[in-house]
Amino acid sequence: MRYALTEIIAIFSYMVAFAFVECFLVIACLLVASMILPEKWLRDGFSYKGFLIVLIGSIASILYQAFLGNELPDPELYYLWVGILAILSVGLILLFHFVNRLQIALQSIAERFTVFAYLYIPIGFLGLAVVIFRNLLSD
């Protein structure tokens, strides 16, 4: 109750704009990887493979931040973490690639998440516009 409505909108806009840009960069990296890698690796079944990669990466980021707190990681621990994630990602992608029922189930879940894009993309663009507008008008 101590912030004005314009301050609340500004804070929300910065938050949404950052999340929008972050998601755009993740999708762009996955699309570039699907263009560079051989067709069977990522392009075939892009929806479920991309969904698995993003899901594993999101869960790992949350766990990694909770584990670290405010401290910088040791390089050995970081490389171990990345190696485990790479092995887990490849293993799950191979499992879903060879088990068709799992692939269909994951594609169904991914399709249900696309409904949120109809809300998320316009709100993201609006938040980005507010952030750009505020930064252009600030002293």
Secondary-structure map:
Elements: H1 5-36, H2 39-43, H3 46-68, H4 75-98, H5 100-113, H6 117-137
Q: What is the total number of structural domains? A: 1
Task: Give the overall pLDDT as a whole number.
Answer: 88
- Could you tell me how far the N terminus lies from the C terminus, measured between alpha carbons in angstroms? 27 Å
Look at the helices and sheets and give the structural class.
Answer: mainly alpha
- Share of residues in strands: under 5%
The H/E string reads HHHHHH
* Radius of gyration, taken over Cα atoms and rounded to an integer in Å: 19 Å
Poorly predicted regions: none
Helix content estimate: over 70%
| Helix segment tally | 6
Q: Biggest sheet: strands, sense, closure?
A: none
Extended strand count: 0
Q: What coarse outline follows from CA principal-axis ratios? A: globular
